[in-house]
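Input record (one chain):
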Amino acid sequence: MIGRRLPGAAGALLVLFACAGPPPDGTAEPGGEVSSEPLTPAVDARYLTHLLFAADDGTAFIGSFDQTVEGEDLRLDYDVRLTDGDAWRSLVLTQDTVSVARAAWRLLPTRTMAVRVGDAGQIVSLLFGEGRDSVRLVAGEEVSVWTGPTGQRESLGIAALQASDGAVPGILFFRRAARALGIPVATTDARTFVFADSLGNGLVVHAGTIGQPAVAHTWLHGVETAWGDVTLEPPDPGRAGGSAAAWRFEISGTTVRGSFRPLTSEDPGDGTLIRMEAIVNVGTEVLDFNGFAATLPSP
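The corresponding structure, as predicted from the sequence alone:
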């Protein structure tokens, strides 16, 4: 267990995750898009970036940015969705091929998406559309940054989703992983759960794949801690009542445990996005969350 205190932090944040593919050079990729980096030789590789946002009112956002370099070509496959009531609305759905001009992992603007970065290269915001119909995802302070066991960069931060009727605060989970095309895919798709509540608390759970034990990062009342002994149980049809559809988790040696279950069976048609609710127990405190589950592929 490794812990550190974050000054001025509020709420409780729990992150469980497992492995993804390594960058081609075996190092973690930078966390943002750098606009002034020097040109570097392109490596034939697939770079996969995910942004998952959840708010306590049920607002949910997912961005999947798939970029593959082969020779001098960079193939883009972007899919960005936002909840609209009980359904998911597409903000970006585009495929394109462009020339590799800078680091191939950089998010590139599209006809309907603008990308803003900070001085250190971090993602500041993504803007979708124009005028009153525009939606902006604004990334705030990162409360935890780590490198996964196979080299992927992951982080957790505060964020807000802005629209014409105001801004909704929530939490943002970021992941960037990469794989040289000559290396076989080492892992399969994995389900990730993202939740937030009305108290500013958050929960992100990555189920992992077969043979990959779940681990955890918690942010509880301003203290971020890494845990290695986490039990994560998928739904069991043999359980009684509504608990049959629930996932359950527990961090060994702590009082942190909980469950999450689908709010509705509706999704985009392929089971990759499911609206969910979670109940988390921290000692005698019971926290109620809203969020969603997403199936995230490996690069």
